[in-house]
């Protein structure tokens, strides 16, 4: 009878079960993105678009939401007060733009709550301490960074928290890698992207991270009958190992006065 009693004993309560499996979505602070996709740990979302459509700006806005505090001295900034890690593969990240966005949000929150100039420089400095940047200049540097980044991720998790990994232009080195095909490189193009995808999946699962990545779009006109110019559509060019479930196509909008 004791064996049956042990077998029937509950492993966990319903409260413990929901606390373990229910995870709040990662908020980016970009309204249309938060409405379109419930970004949760283990998810990858691609922002695909042509140059100049604002993909990197969306990463800046998401990073600002991560590192802004929730509340300081009675002023609510509507941030997550967590660390932010951005891997820059384009070598075009503009730190001054991030400072501009932070400064604007801080002053706007203070003005709305009638606390102008209330220690805004201190809040800005604390935000920048929570921002971390890694720059890679080749696929192998990117792969090496993913191989050695795990202690850094653990440290960031234990000191402020980290839920979102930002990657600017996952296709930055694709055409360079294709050009090196057959030139005695240690690994072929498919193998490099497969290993990168595997390392990212391992990091996401182990550290419970969501990934928000940008990718440059390759636009092509599909074959169509009839008159008029055909609409341009994105043609996927990265190897199968990198294909993700959630992709948002971004395009520049021009507004007349």
The helix-and-strand class reads: alpha/beta
Order of helices and strands: HHHEHEEEHHEHHEHHEEEE
Mean pLDDT: 83
Could you give the order of strands across the largest sheet?
A: 5-4-6-7-1-10
How much of the sequence lies in strands comes to 15-25%
The main β sheet shows up as: 6 strands, parallel
Q: What is the CA-CA span between the terminal residues?
A: 81 Å
Helix segment tally: 10
Please estimate the helix content. Answer: 40-55%
Broad shape: globular
Number of strands: 10
Low-confidence stretches: none
Radius of gyration: 22 Å
Polypeptide structure, described:
- This protein is of the alpha/beta class.
- It contains ten helices and ten strands.
- Strands 5-4-6-7-1-10 form a six-stranded parallel sheet. It has a two-stranded antiparallel ribbon with strand order 2-3. A two-stranded antiparallel ribbon has the order 8-9.
- A hairpin with a 2-residue loop joins strand 2 and strand 3.
- The longest helix has 19 residues, at 189-207.
- The mean pLDDT is 83.
């Amino acid at each position: 009878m004791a064996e049956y009693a042990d077998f029937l004993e509950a492993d966990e309560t319903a409260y413990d079960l929901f606390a373990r499996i229910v995870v709040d979505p990662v908020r980016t602070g970009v309204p249309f993105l938060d409405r379109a996709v419930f970004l949760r740990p283990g998810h990858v979302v691609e922002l695909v678009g042509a140059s100049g459509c604002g993909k990197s700006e969306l990463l800046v806005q998401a990073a600002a939401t991560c590192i802004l505090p929730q509340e300081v001295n009675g002023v609510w900034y509507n941030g997550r007060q967590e660390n932010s890690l951005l891997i820059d593969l384009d070598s075009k990240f503009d730190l001054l733009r991030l400072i501009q966005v932070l400064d604007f949000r801080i002053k706007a929150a203070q003005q709305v709550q009638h606390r102008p100039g209330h220690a805004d420089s201190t809040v800005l400095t604390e935000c920048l301490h929570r921002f971390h940047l890694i720059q890679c200049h080749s696929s192998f540097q990117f792969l090496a960074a993913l191989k050695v980044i795990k202690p850094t991720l653990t440290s960031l998790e234990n000191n402020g928290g980290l839920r979102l990994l930002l990657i600017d232009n996952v296709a930055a080195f694709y055409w360079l890698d294709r050009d090196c095909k057959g030139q005695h490189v240690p690994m072929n193009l498919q193998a490099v992207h497969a290993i990168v995808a595997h390392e990212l999946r391992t990091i996401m699962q182990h550290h419970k991270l969501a990934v928000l990545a940008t990718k440059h779009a390759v636009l092509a006109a599909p074959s169509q009958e009839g008159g008029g110019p055909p609409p341009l559509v994105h043609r996927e060019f990265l190897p199968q190992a990198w294909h993700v479930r959630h992709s948002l196509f971004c395009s520049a909008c021009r507004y007349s006065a």
